[in-house]
Amino acid sequence: MEIQHSDRIGIVGAACAGLTAAEELRDLGYQNITLIDAKNRIGGKTYSIQYADRSSQTRGIYEGGTVWVLPSPLYKKYKKRYGISTTQHIMPPVQIFDLATGKISSPFLVQSQYSLLSKVRQVTKFFRELSKYTRYDNPGYINPAYRIMNEPSPQWFAQNDLGFIREALIPIANAAQFGHLEEEVASPYVIRLLALLNRCNLPKKLLLNMPQLQEGNQELWNRIAATHNLCLGQTIKRVTRGKTIIVETASHHWEFDRLIWTAPVEDFIGVADASPEERDIFSRVRTIKRAVITCQVEGLPSNIFYCVRNTFNHPLPASYPLAMYEVDPGSKVYSFYPFMDETTTIEELENNVVDLVKKLGGTEVKLLTQPLIWRWFSHFSPQDLGNGIYERLEVLQGSQNTYFSNELTAGVSVPYGMEYAADLVQRFFSQRPSSLGQIFPEKELSAR
Ligand SMILES: Cc1cc2nc3c(=O)[nH]c(=O)nc-3n(C[C@H](O)[C@H](O)[C@H](O)COP(=O)(O)OP(=O)(O)OC[C@H]3O[C@@H](n4cnc5c(N)ncnc54)[C@H](O)[C@@H]3O)c2cc1C
């Protein structure tokens, strides 16, 4: 069916991927776009929570999801379009806290067996290597190079003689995304996460003092959503695809010509008339659960961001917080980031927060709210990657007028989610298909 600007397009999920798709479609001239979300708010895993009134010292906001605003030309374009302030809230630099010794150091100053010369060589080599995976015209895992990188990431670091980089950056990568899965996660996921660093200038790369939006990270999505046709609080019960696509919830029934699914694909096979290929691919997806625990704490230093030293050869229980920081300097409100496995209880999560606070010299911990729990990092096994699962997934795009754009196709992070969604729209909905590499001039793509 030839694509028309009058096509009725349904988008499931009103967070960074769905809202970017809607925004880019409207820019191309599509007018009949409906966004549907199961929750009663937009933003998905970008979730800014007001915990206090704004004062001269604090914004009174903490981030329940997306912590850092990482560079992306699309972010820049939308921030300008929607009048987001150019002054940012800069987070403290990341430091590594070693539970065993009590030592705190910058990531690149961690205790290590490598000589200074070897460390410098590795840092230079690593950032050069990362530049292969930073291209904007290759979003998600479309790049066939990922198919042969199907080893778990510790092997990749060993093969590339980057042992020091693993010591310096993997505690941060594990805190950010992989938790206790480091040993089994395929290297493309780790490399792509770290490749986001290559978009930053050198001081930021070394210090990792990243920004947040002054208004709270969710505000950009609130403003974009306010200009689109939105149905919130709608749990999808059924998706039936024939000549048109019928999407049903308990109270609504929509008929679309095309559907962009930005919610998890595991949910898609639960409600849709999935084909055997969709069912086979999506049933292979693995996920991980993580929690965000925000507390009022007495006795800790102000303006800190610590990642706890953790790698597969310095293991910590899944439920131990791997990162913590003060949400606003002087607020005494700190967020903690543990992961969860099948056996983790809320009590265990809270006890581990208290234990970490005690080890850092804190005296009193009061929970601000119940822990927020997220299912995330949809990914495939190294074997599936090696067998070309992403190529199969790309072949699915557009079949039965259905498209998928989410953390599985894009990779974790808001920039990746936005860039994959924008690229998908360019590839399948533009009368003159192009790729992001053509949309954004090279100077836009280089590190800032
Ligand atoms: C704790 C935490 C910290 C993070 N830190 C960072 C960071 O520092 N920097 C960064 O760039 N990224 C960070 N991320 C990752 C980033 O938030 C996500 O990668 C990004 O938000 C994914 O966007 P998305 O639109 O693909 O999916 P989501 O944000 O997950 O949105 C999916 C949307 O679909 C809706 N939905 C789900 N299921 C259904 C259904 N069945 N029917 C209808 N709607 C449904 C959801 O309600 C949601 O609105 C963090 C995430 C978490 C949880």
What does this structure look like?
The protein is α+β, with helices and mostly antiparallel strands. The chain has 2 domains: 9-47 and 216-285 and 380-445, FAD/NAD(P)-binding domain; 92-209 and 286-377, 2-Layer Sandwich (Alpha-Beta Plaits). It is 35% helix and 19% strand. The protein contains 18 helices and 21 strands. The strands form 5 sheets. Strands 6, 7, 14, 15, 16, 17, 18, 19 and 20 form a 9-stranded mixed beta sheet that branches. A 5-stranded parallel beta sheet has the order 9-2-1-13-21, with helices on one face. It is globular, with a radius of gyration of 22 Å. Mean pLDDT is 93; it is low at 439-448. Flavin-adenine dinucleotide binds at residues 12-18, 36-39, 44-46, 65-68, 70, 236, 262-264, 267, 290, 292, 374, 376, 406-407, 412-415, 417.
Descriptive tags:
448 residues; alpha+beta; FAD/NAD(P)-binding domain; Alpha-Beta Plaits; nine-stranded mixed beta sheet; five-stranded parallel beta sheet; 21 strands; disordered C terminus; binds flavin-adenine dinucleotide
